[in-house]
Write a structure and sequence with these properties.
Length: 201
């Protein structure tokens, strides 16, 4: 593969600056006035606007996907075709996690039947964790792309070129997904009732 190092470095710096300032909305900032499907889709695109412009052409959220989440009971049904703060909070969490987790896994992480207060606490904790994870991710990118950005000391984790960086972050993504799924499978288990600390795949 052939990449222009200056172009990649510039793109990484721009994305780094954008993500450094990016935040999911606070619970109180999510509208609770009853929005129709088209309005919800527009709002979600604004809230989850961290996709590179080149990838925004593909619809990451559509009416069909939202209807599918309702049908599969991943989120509550709309009230007379209107979506309120609770619906939008579910959708923000679902849409930001669905890139790396399956729907059944998401259902374990964000259960149905929460009271509004429980959902507010769940969403607020998630939004804060999202912010911290974003900061951690940027630190890792700075280290991994040090050879491209020319601002980090070289280490065995530093990629010297874009192809190596792509491979590295793709592998990390796969391991991160596996870790999340393995941890979710341990819910309710102890060493006494079936949990194991033996090395397994």
């Amino acid at each position: 593969m052939n990449y222009d190092k200056r172009l990649i470095a510039g793109k990484l710096r721009r994305w780094e600056k954008y993500l450094d300032d990016y935040r999911l909305p606070l619970w109180s900032d999510i509208p609770d006035i009853g929005l129709y499907m088209e309005q919800v889709i527009i709002l979600l695109k604004q809230y989850l606007d961290y996709l590179p412009p080149e990838l925004k052409e593909a619809q990451f959220i559509t009416a069909a996907t939202i209807n599918n989440y309702v049908r599969k009971k991943v989120m509550p049904e709309p009230v007379k075709k209107k979506y309120y703060r609770t619906h939008i909070a579910y959708l923000i969490m679902i849409c930001s996690l669905k890139q790396c987790l399956s729907i059944p896994t998401l259902q374990k992480m964000i259960p149905m039947g929460l009271t509004e207060k429980q959902l507010e606490e769940t969403y607020s904790a998630y939004a804060e964790r999202h912010r911290l994870a974003c900061r951690y991710f940027l630190e890792q990118v700075r280290m991994a792309a040090g050879g491209i950005l020319d601002h980090e000391p070289e280490s065995e984790y530093t990629a010297d070129n874009t192809t190596d960086l792509i491979s590295q972050v793709a592998v990390i993504s796969g391991f991160a997904r596996l870790l999340a799924e393995k941890l979710l499978l341990l819910e309710g288990k102890t060493l006494e009732n079936g949990g194991s600390i033996e090395i397994s795949r």
